Amino acid sequence: MSRRITRATASAALVALTLGACAPSADSPEPGAAPGQGCDGDAVALDVWSWRTEDVKTYDRIFDVFEEANPCITVNFQAHLNTEYDQILRTGLTGSDGPDIAQVRSYGLLQPLVEGGNLEPLDDVVPALGEFDDAALDGARGREDGAVYGVPLATQTIQVWYNTAIFEENGLEEPETWDDFVALNDTLLEADVTPLAVGARDGWFVPTVHDALTAAQYGGADFQQALRDGETDFTDPAYVDSIQTLKDLQQYMPDDVTGVAYTDAQVLFTSGQAAMFAGGSYEQAFFQEANPDLELGVFQVPPPPGSALDHPVTPGYADGNWGLSATTQHRAESETLLTWLATPEFGQLVADELKQFSPIPGVEYADPLQQEMWDLYQENPAPYLLLVDYRYGDPVGTDLMGEAGQKLFLGDTDAAGAADIVQDGLSAWWTPGE
Amino acid sequence: MSRRRTAALPTPVALLFLLPAAALFAVFVLYPMATALTYSLFSWRGTAQEEFVGAANFVALFTTEPYRSQLPRAFGHNALLFAGAMVAQNTVGLLLAYVLHQRARFRRLFQVLFTMPYLVSPLVVGYLWSLLLSPLFGPVNALLRAVGLDAVAQPWLGDPDTALWVVVLVTAWQWVGFPLLVYGAALGALDPSTQEAAMLDGASSAQRFWHVTLPLLTPVIGTVSVLTFIFSMEAFPIPYALGGSSGSPAGATDVMSLLFYRTAFHSGASNAIGVSSAVAIVLFLVIVGVSVAFTRWFRGVERRLT
């Protein structure tokens, strides 16, 4: 009996270990590349990897446009499950049957591939990168050498969504001042409508809500620069004040907000039980699908008196890039495709077909709401601070604010204590000014 | 003895038959194990292996933040998961098995019913319960309020004081069929004459359970306990579904596997592979060490009782 136990012990415990070693990659068979019309020689098939399993058909349509213009190149687009993509990509790029071009993450999560030498710098490969906004390119830069390792794919913006029907019923309008914002929250509360649909059980969502409501109060891009220059840290009074504002607004959120899941908050808003949702531009597709009758509006939260900035801002961040594998066998063809991925033609397809914001200059949006969000971001952009600059080490800034915000909502800490949690956690790998 | 000798194959042939299994074991078990061990002994720059650093990753795990404070916290939560499972899962499983053993009618039906959740993916079970326990739309709190128990209705997963116990109970809800089946089989295999002898001596049913049945079950209790320990240490899908990768709320449901997951795949840290492999090795050593010690100790208990 005892030997059986020991053996069972050993074999089950091994599972823990196999977790540690990366699984071998899935085979990616090279399909025969048939040359398109107008191609004299042999066609080359490029493997392009993505984590957007839901967009495979759309990407196939998009790449048809490219293949028509480049008959000697076929694009073999493959999507892997989002949650497993990073592991699969790491194995693929270090092995022999990886992609030629891959969607890669932005900011901190891009670094393992850059540091491992798995991606090629693109500054000289794709001249059009010079026309991109710096904020978009920041998401594609190597931490150490500052070179650009990806063509930015999409941008997300963070603002407050509102249900226009509920606003009309209660005689409310988009707030111009902080007092307007507080007054409309009070009116909604009296009308028995949850003003702000927030779910703080999912830690990652807390920093999004914090920046949507208070980025202008702590100073947005100015504060980011002050941190980079080493002039301040997260215990800065302006940052503490912004966390206090989040606490003050808790009365307008659902009860027991730390028990409310992010998906609960989405349902609260789409079902018309809550009037506003502080969140990303990426919510639009889900909102409209969940409730096609929902009439949506967006606004930026005006900063409270005494804020670092005198105007509202829209936080945003780069969301994904196209990277070039260092081990590609089809370098010239890959460069042709990457160059196309930086053209306004592709950017417009991202806007029209994928319904995402493209950072490529000159793209326009047919959906008026999308155009409005983009214009607001262009007028007064701010970084989604903890995601943009503070995911280059362990622990990541967004996780820290998630935990700090949950403690704040639970009453286990005050605003200064929450700021300390963020600052102390980050000090494990970050020193202001470095 | 003699029969066994005639059945034995000549050694070379026996080795030949062992070869396929040994090869599979080497490729799918030993190789990944050795890989994880070597990974933990090197420093990494992203995906690139750098130089040999000996135990430096392990030292970092125990001396630098965030691991210094997160490792004991996560380990403590795993220990509570184990303690909770022993009470909520194994004790309840034993009692149910005993009750079902006493009454043959519907035994099969109830065994199947209690074992059903076992067949569902733990991730699905986790998400299901997170929906049931939602403070806004969840039927659990709605039911409590409907019967006037407003004071009992809680933000179950939003309160650090209750969240970990919810993880324990949901895990028990899913796995209670496992001890139920094992104990049920063991009870069925017990010699009924010992029960009859105790009955003739005038032992009450409680006395028969405590002084006859339970001691005879000791070897099985040992096995179930060790396996429960291993499952508790490796808990991942249910904590992940209920509290996300950071163990919400405020780290109250953080466990070792989540710490490993965050360290390996969630941070932009340069040496993520080195440190996360060290986490995996530490977890492995704890599981093996405690399981072997536990088994030895239980063998002693067994000997004294039987």
Automatic annotation (TrEMBL), chain A:
Signal sequence residues: 1-23
SUPFAM superfamilies documented for this protein: Periplasmic binding protein-like II (SSF53850)
Gene3D superfamilies listed in its UniProt record: Periplasmic binding protein-like II
Keywords: Signal
Identification of the protein by name: Raffinose/stachyose/melibiose transport system substrate-binding protein
From TrEMBL, chain B:
Provenance organism: Promicromonospora thailandica
Family membership: Belongs to the binding-protein-dependent transport system permease family.
Name of this chain's protein: Raffinose/stachyose/melibiose transport system permease protein
Lineage per the UniProt record: Bacteria, Bacillati, Actinomycetota, Actinomycetes, Micrococcales
Domain ABC transmembrane type-1: 75-294
GO biological process, one term: transmembrane transport
InterPro entries: MetI-like (IPR000515), MetI-like_sf (IPR035906), UgpAE/MalFG_permease (IPR050809)
Stretches that traverse the bilayer: 12-34, 79-100, 112-132, 163-188, 209-231, 272-294
Keywords of this entry: Cell membrane, Membrane, Transmembrane, Transmembrane helix, Transport
Pfam families: BPD_transp_1
Membrane topology: Multi-pass membrane protein
Subcellular location: Cell membrane
Highest taxon of source: Bacteria
Cellular component annotations (GO), alphabetically ordered: plasma membrane
